[in-house]
Predict the 3D structure of the following.
Amino acid sequence: MKKIILYIVPLAIASLATTSCVDNWLTEPSPGVTKLEDFYTSGQTALQSVNAAYTPLMWEYDGATYLCEWYIGDVMSDDALKGGQNVGDMSVVYDMENFKVQSNNALLLGFYRAQYQGIARCNLVLDQVAKMEPDTTMSVSLQQRILGEASFLRALYYFRLVRVFGGVPYVDFIIDSPSKWQQPRATAEEVYGHIIDDLTFAQKTLWEKNAYPAEDLGRATKGAAEAMLLKVNLYCHDYVAAEAWGDSIISKHQYDLCDDYGTNFLLEGENGIESVFEIQYMEEKTSDYGEGFGFTRGTFTTILTRTRAENGWGFNKPTQNLYDEFETGDPRRDLSILNPQGDLSTVEYYLGNRYLNRKYALVTIADGDTTYYKLSHHTRSPINTKYIRFADVLLMHAEACCENGNLAAAKEALERVRSRARNMQDDPTVLPAFPYGTYSDTPEGLRNAIRHERRVELAMEGHRWFDLCRWGVACEVMEAYKAQESEEVRAEMGTFIKGVHELLPIPQQEIDLNPMEQNPGY
């Protein structure tokens, strides 16, 4: 059963945030203003506050532009073209996709600010809930879990920032006066260190997935913390630690692969056996068009990626390069990419490309008939974002084992993922076990096979760009991709500059408010 956590920002917290901008707020108490210590008096308040800390993960719109993370993870890579009505549709994404981005990019500003709003909410929970006494609604175990959730979420928000912008200001306290607004920019290494500290604490205090009641599915778990520790250590190239965290989550048997790969992207598959951490959404009939952060419970991704023939907007279009990456007979290709047949209106094409992203379009195909789930409001969709699937965990573990020379364990994890896809076909020769094709039975061949498998297994889920950057191959891959793209696409692409374009610029408005050094090349 799908469970949605209602993320509520308590009115008193909103009041505190507003009044904290006054210079003399702490000198004389104002009538009707609730102090923090007066507000945090019950376990119910603690739960409401940590619920609110999840909310900015959901935000995909800031009132001016859409800021879904896949605009970076998919569209900046060789997996997807921007799409939309034309090249001018969502020009901020066009600039990012074609390596023409500037520091005034509105998407990056909204994305940056959304993460820091999440961080501020986490800091509030960690500061105040730790001081509270357990009561009838908050046992010691629940109090520790709430602190673990906030630590996990703060780590996740900083992770989303550091892999896009590099080092950023690190704030782990409540900003309650103007004198604290300006903070120095930490290095990427320092931010990753803090992320690992938060995740380590979260892993110790969070509950296992099977300890949560059904109504709490969707909260951070011990397994989610271990999966993030696996992921973050890969980014830090600490493969020994990454392998150990992979061993930990896999050995507990809390997670497994769905029998049917496509189940992951249907409503009935949400928070299921393969789900390690999902961003929760719910269906909602109201519209927030023109409004800013926090005015929706549903995701915009469905309408953004659906075909324009179905009132969608046609963004995030899979490339021919990605389509060709799938091996013959791989069932994941057609469960990830729609290849419309027959006569298509010219509005379906973007720079000659007609492919569509299927994964979050809520579309089913049976007996040749394509059915789109009817949304209550065309900009509201209930499909959760699968931020970490167990297949991702297996492939990250395979990567860590391969880099550590534990080739047998790497092959075993790789085979688990490939065998699931193979078993969906009647032909046992499809997707043979490693070694296969051009991937020789060597450490280099295994590394390349794992990277291929990540690309096809996780296609259109927002991972590809970040993988290319952490592997240090973004320049080479994007140059090779550009060389084989159509003349129409190449005409729009700028030149990738190694050492510059792996990161995006710190938003200029943030530098104006908090002077700090810009990323090189911007």
